[in-house]
Design goal:
With about 450 residues, the chain is α/β, with parallel strands linked by helices. The chain has helices at about 10-25, 50-65, 75-80, 85, 110-120, 125-135, 175-180, 190-200, 225-230, 250-255, 275-280, 285-300, 320-330, 360-385, and strands spanning about 5-10, 30-35, 40-45, 70-75, 95-100, 160, 165, 185, 205-210, 240, 265-270, 305-310, 335-340, 390-400, 400-405, 410-415, 430-435, 445-450.
Length: about 450
């Protein structure tokens, strides 16, 4: 049996696309994994930071070295922007390394069926013919990013749904809009049909994701409108939103977020608490907008899980400007902070900014925010100790226990009573949070028990 390995770097969109590619290979009888060894290795890359690109290059070199008889296909955002540089990694073995730019990534959904019928001619030759033919004929609307639709998830217990792609903003630090293009949205009828299929299959929740969810727009429906439409036309499935913009918290939208089937877990893309830095980043809001968004989100539900993204060390960021960011995060009491040092990206406006912050200082600022995030996470778990939450069983085990993800985004470790079987992945559970894990148990957020 011919084997395929799907390796995915980066965002939830890439994860969905990787899952969809894996499903296409599995459907045609290929053995599919996320391991290091296979006949065909698909590497779906990311370009958000220079480190993500470095990781992709290491993975490509390792795949070429460790799989001497295999073929490697590299696609994704990094491949979209640096195809020639990636191709040069083949070092004299161009017939083993194939670069498929991100805007042609959907070709990979048609590849397994093609290979099934043509492998007798040799894998490398079949891949070369397929990609040449695909680029020439552009079969089946290859630029449609919503062909990626997963019904049988190989690597995740909870389904993710891609409802938006691309971005109309031109933030001065961001390369993603260059790689993925302007905002596009999945039409409402198709989205509802896919969500109903997940509900009928017994899934308790679906994660709606995109490059910028707040830019969803289809047939006159914005993000709030599509949420209302989905909730009105389904029965039980809960919806989790991957990321939101602070300036999208309008009164009508906030009312929709108060629906009990919207998970009380909100991740805000903030980036800085300094008005000067936000302006240089070409963000469309100031700190007051962030503070108002946090305040209003807290009034919607009982103590929702609030998280954010922060970039530190942006060109010209002074200690005083970082202090404003730190204070904003402290006042907000985030349950987690995803903090990253600024990464200089070719093709962006900030590439030409000269007032750099020393790397050591940027890393120190990240560490300061991560320490604050750990305090916020511990305080949040403490506030939920003794309370009951709904959770989704995940496909993971911690010894004799199992892992579940709560509605408010806590990874719970659940130990069954003697003789009590562990529920299958995807099962909706009622759990009582018991408290923080021991220091030697870093793989989950809290200990919990099944509530009878």
């Amino acid at each position: 049996m011919v084997s395929a390995s799907i390796r995915t770097l980066g965002c939830k969109l890439n994860q969905i696309e990787g899952e969809s590619i894996a499903e296409a290979f599995s459907r045609e009888g290929f053995s599919v994994s996320a391991g290091d060894f296979a006949d065909i290795l698909v590497i779906n890359t990311c370009t958000v930071t220079s480190k993500s690109e470095q990781k992709a290059r290491r993975l490509i070199r390792k795949a070429l070295k460790d799989n001497p008889g295999s073929c490697i296909i590299v696609t994704g955002c990094y491949a979209q922007l640096e195809a020639d540089g990636i191709a040069a990694l083949a070092e004299g073995e161009p017939r083993r390394l194939f670069v498929l730019t991100g805007d042609h990534k959907t070709f990979l959904l048609d590849l397994p069926r093609y290979l099934r019928d043509t492998l007798d001619t040799g894998l490398s030759q079949a891949l070369e013919r397929f990609l040449e033919q695909g680029r020439a004929e552009a079969p089946r609307d290859p630029l449609d990013p919503f062909r990626f639709n997963v019904t049988d998830f190989s690597f995740h217990s909870r389904p993710f749904m891609k409802i938006q792609d691309g971005c109309n903003h031109a933030c001065s630090y961001c390369r993603v809009s260059l790689a993925r293009g302007p905002s596009v949205s999945l039409d409402a009828e198709t989205l509802l049909s896919r969500l109903r299929a997940l509900e009928d299959a017994g899934h308790g929740e679906a994660v709606l994701t995109g490059v910028n969810l707040n830019q969803y727009c289809s047939a006159g429906l914005d993000l709030g409108g599509i949420l209302e439409y989905l909730l009105a036309n389904t029965q039980t499935i809960a919806l989790r939103l991957s990321s939101l913009e602070p300036d999208g918290m309008t009164e009508p939208f906030l009312r929709i977020l108060s629906n009990r089937r919207i998970r009380p877990h909100f991740h805000l893309s903030i980036q800085s608490g300094s008005p000067q830095i936000l302006e240089r980043m070409r963000r469309s809001y100031g700190p007051a907008t962030v503070e108002n968004a946090v305040r209003r989100l807290r009034t919607l539900r009982e103590d929702p899980f609030l998280a954010c993204d922060i970039i530190t060390g942006f060109p010209g960021e002074t200690p005083g400007e970082f202090a404003k960011t730190h204070e904003l995060c402290r006042q907000a009491g985030f349950a987690w902070i995803h903090a990253f040092p600024y990464s200089r990206r070719p093709g962006t406006e900030a590439w030409n900014f000269t007032e750099s912050v020393p790397e050591r200082e940027a890393v120190s600022r990240v560490e300061s925010l991560i320490n604050l995030a750990r305090q916020g996470r511990a305080a949040y778990i403490g506030r939920w100790s003794g309370k009951t939450v709904e959770a989704i069983a995940e496909d993971g085990r911690q010894g004799a226990a199992m892992i579940a993800l709560s509605e408010n985004y806590l990874k719970l470790c659940l130990s069954p009573q003697p003789g009590q079987p562990l529920p299958p992945p995807g099962t909706v559970l009622q759990c009582r949070v018991l408290g923080l894990p021991k220091p030697a148990e870093p793989h989950f957020d809290a200990i919990a028990e099944f509530k009878s």
